[in-house]
Amino acid sequence: MYGETIAKLIEELARLPGIGGKSAQRLAFHIVKMPKIQAETLANSIINAVNNVKFCSICCNITDVDPCVVCSNPKRDSQTIMLVEDPRDMAAYERTNEFFGLYHVLHGVLSPMNGIGPNELKFAELLKRLQNNPNVEYEIILAISPSVEGEATAMYTSKLLRPLGVKVTRIAHGIPVGGSLEHTDEVTLARALKGRVEI
Ligand code: ZN
After folding, report:
1. How far is CA 87 from its chain centroid?
2. Tens of pLDDT along 97-125?
3. Ligand 1 mean position, distance from CA 35 (Å)
4. CA-CA distance, 158 to 45, in Å (whole number)?
């Protein structure tokens, strides 16, 4: 209907997460109406990011310098490693200004239904990282979301790390402040109960 060039652009935009057919169409029309220089800057930024962004060789964070800024900061506590699913979770913890250790980014959680097993995640890199420093008394903090898949991932991780003798802890998942128990899912409730502390 719009010709092949526009159809191709819509098709490519629709592949992006959270972009449905209608949004892709809206974006495509917006892009072709942009000043040419602006559209070229957008296209070049994508190419530039794809060509220059890599995984940190230590923590697997997405970075353009290797090691990433967190891993290369000598003030960070290198004995404490927080395991997260996604670079966005790492960014969220960085924003709290409450965590001064290092991270390891798995890039997902175990999800056999979607074909994501341990080999699809950065477990081998984590093992290598820990085994390379056998004299360090690590604490690995699991900061993985309390979904069914997250639970399975946490369980797998603690089994995987047990033979290394490292301390494995998990952040407590509570009821969100202002949230009601009624509208909280069971996994969160169960974890909140298990993670209860004496007051
Ligand atoms: Zn790093």
Report:
1. 4
2. 888 999 999 999 999 888 899 999 999 99
3. 38
4. 40
Task: Estimate the share of the chain in helix, then strand, then coil, as percent rounded to the nearest 5.
Answer: 45, 15, 40
What's the CA-to-centroid distance between 36 and ligand 1, angstroms? 37
- Name the residue with tokens 């990282």: 129
Question: What is d(CA 170, CA 144) in angstroms, rounded to the nearest whole number?
Answer: 8
Separation of CA 29 and ligand 1 centre (Å): 39
**14-34 residue pLDDT tens:** 999 889 999 999 999 999 999
Ligand 1: centre distance to CA 195 (Å): 30
Contact 160, 121 (CB under 8 A): no
Q: Which residues surround ligand 1, an ion (CB under 5 A)?
A: 56, 58-59, 61, 67-68, 71
